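Supplementary Methods, section 5.1.

A reviewer requested that the exact input to the structure prediction be made available. We therefore reproduce it here, unchanged from the version used in the analyses.
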Amino acid sequence: LIFNGFTNDNSTQWSAADFKPYLTYVDASGTSRDTMFDSFLFTAVAKAQSGRMFDGSANPSNMADWSWLLDQMFAPSHQLSALDTAVQTARGTLGSIPNARVVIAIPFASPLQNSFGNLYGTGATTSFNYLQIGEPAALANRSAAVKWYIDQVTSRWRAAGFQNLTLVGFYWYMESVMNDA
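The structure derived from this sequence is encoded token-by-token as follows.
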């Protein structure tokens, strides 16, 4: 698990050096001796920099928070870029190792969210609250937000041109499908 987001002291920042003991077995002298993990799940810590939450709590994240999380994951020389560099470095030390497999968590489109953001480009904010706009519209908006997020990840992934990473899928942050409309 590679946590991204905001903690009480700062945003989480993973460097290439931080990934070394995850990618390789490091001996007491700090030398990489063998491979370790080959797959990495990038997920959010519960709180965005705004203080809003990526989970199902009463202060739900919005589109700006989801964009901020994406900016964190795709930051130059941190997170995904750092993992890409770390794999290349590990190859230089250990020889041929496979690309690191990456899974990206999808934030929760909370039904408590009344003002997600301008999801449809109309200038109007989008609600996920089925009590406010009705169940079919709320579900359609939540689905559109998830699709927007996945499209953002795949577009940014292609643009990044990672040579040592393979995007293998997505992960549902809430770890279950709730029947909450």
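The first strand starts at residue 2 and ends at 4. These observations are discussed further in the main text.
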